[in-house]
Specification:
- This protein is mainly α and about 300 residues long.
- It has 2 domains: about 35-210, no CATH class; about 215-280, no CATH class.
- Helices cover about 45% and strands about 5% of the residues.
- The chain has helices spanning about 5-30, 60-65, 75-80, 80-95, 105-130, 145, 160-170, 200-210, 230-235, 235-245, 255-260, 265-270, 290-300, and strands at about 35, 145-150, 155, 215-220, 225-230, 275-280.
- The strands form 2 sheets. It has a 3-stranded mixed sheet. Strands 4-5-6 form a 3-stranded mixed sheet.
- Strand 2 and strand 3 (about 155) form a beta hairpin.
- Helix 4 (about 80-95) packs across helix 5 (about 105-130) and helix 5 runs antiparallel to helix 7 (about 160-170).
- It is globular, with a radius of gyration of 23 Å.
- The termini are far apart.
- The mean pLDDT is about 90.
Length: about 300
């Protein structure tokens, strides 16, 4: 029997253990909760008494990066993020919770939370870009509830904004067509901010755009079904309750809500043949414009 110490085997074992430990550390870092500030951390000028929050400052940012189809040029945003940083700095300093005087009406408050959600989702992707999905943003797979942002002097996640404020406070199911989680399965972004004085019009338009988008709602004649986004099963109670409150003289079921937005032929077959709802898988691919996608492929 040889008495020689098998250094090569030991070395390989130690190296393997080191690689495993290093991999574990990398994975842990990817999953660890974190806080994302704007890199500049420059506070905006103080709002004077009697002023309202500058929602409109988000509009130039959106016009510069969102195309007519509601898709985002993240490469352009990554190259020039200063407009987004300035708007997010307003969000960091002011909110309906810490400075209610600047948000005198429900429309002011709801417009703030919608714009904050969309701006912070853009910031999260911009910070990590290039990525193929917001789910790849750290903390990987937990970005919606483990990535926190300063919002009006406190830390909040996208999950808390949506499910802790927007849904329980405002009870308007149309907000599900306005919150863009940077995914192709979600609503298309507008090329303008949500504004208190136009909020009703904008939410109605977002509802129309979502329900007339074949990727979200489509009559499938071959399979005799109405194929719809999974948000309609995730938030079914929100939609049926909103329908009951806003149109009490109509049935408050999901198909009734969708029928006015279908084509004449689609509406006829859905009604006459009693098509059921079938839910599609949610598309978590980044809601990137073709230009941004090409840039990301070139970088890879």
């Amino acid at each position: 029997m040889s008495n020689r110490i098998p250094w090569a085997r030991i070395g390989a074992t130690v190296a393997g253990a080191a690689v495993g430990a290093a991999t574990a550390l990398v994975v842990a870092a990817q999953l660890r909760p974190r806080v994302l500030h704007t890199p500049t951390r420059v506070p905006p000028e103080p709002l004077p008494p009697g002023a309202r929050f500058p929602h409109e400052d988000f509009s130039p940012v959106l016009r510069a990066i969102v195309d007519e189809d509601g898709l985002v040029d993240y490469a352009a945003l990554r190259r020039d993020p200063m407009g987004l940083y300035r708007f997010v700095a307003w969000i960091e300093a002011y909110s309906p919770q810490n400075t209610p005087a600047f948000f005198p009406a429900d429309a002011d408050r709801l417009a703030y939370w919608l714009n904050a959600y969309n701006a912070l989702a853009l910031l999260a992707v911009c910070d990590a870009y290039p990525v193929a999905s917001i789910l790849q943003v750290r903390p990987v797979g937990r970005v919606f509830y483990a990535l926190r942002f300063p919002v009006g002097g406190t830390l909040m996640t996208l999950e808390e904004i949506e499910h802790g404020v927007i849904r329980p406070v405002f009870h308007d199911a149309r907000t599900h067509f306005a919150l863009s989680p940077a995914a192709r399965g979600g609503p298309r972004l507008r090329r303008e901010a949500y504004l208190p004085e136009r909020l009703e019009e904008q939410l109605g338009d977002q509802m129309r755009r979502f329900l007339t988008d074949d990727e979200k709602v489509r009559v499938d004649v071959m399979n005799r079904a109405l194929l719809v986004s999974p948000i309609f099963t995730w938030f079914a109670d929100d939609f049926t309750t909103w329908l009951r409150d806003t149109a009490p003289d109509q049935p408050n079921d999901l198909i009734t809500m969708m029928l006015p937005y279908l084509s004449d032929v689609g509406r006829t077959v859905v009604i006459d043949d009693n098509y059921p709802l079938r839910y599609r898988a949610y598309d978590w691919r980044l809601n990137a414009s073709p230009r941004a996608t090409e840039t990301m492929q070139e970088a890879a």
